[in-house]
Amino acid sequence: MYQPEVNDYVKWKVKLGQDLEGWVYFKSSDYITIEISTKPRPQCDLSTFRHKRIHTCILCFPHDYQDLTYVGTRPTIHDGLDKIKDRFHGQEDKGLDREVEKEVTNA
């Protein structure tokens, strides 16, 4: 059975209601959160907030992991360029390499 990881993009076939999709934002042994949308934070003092955007997340519990479909994984600023091919299962994207290279360099 698929075990979701942070930064995986998943689709969730919900039994009752609308199907959902988004990024796995947090993972614990009890649940994961899936970020289904973001929006800009209203004009405010950003020094008091950790994020510049408002994140809408939903909880998904382990008994629901069977209803998740893995779509892909995004790189993070913590990944080195040498790890990108492995995270994307051998797929190469030159534009992605350039973006990640900028993030790694600026980290």
Give a topology summary.
Elements: E1 8-12, E2 20-27, E3 32-40, E4 53-60, E5 68-73, H1 81-87, H2 94-106
Antiparallel strand pairs: 1-2, 1-5, 2-3, 3-4
Order of helices and strands: EEEEEHH
The spatial strand order of the largest sheet comes to 4-3-2-1-5
Query: Cα-atom Rg, whole angstroms?
Result: 16 Å
Strand tally is 5
What are the segments in which pLDDT stays under 50 over at least 5 consecutive residues?
A: 87-107
- Number of structurally distinct domains: 2
Number of helices: 2
Strand content: 25-35%
Mean pLDDT: 78
Helical fraction equals: 10-25%
Q: Tell me about the biggest sheet?
A: 5 strands, antiparallel
| Principal-axes shape call | globular
The N- to C-terminal Cα distance equals 34 Å
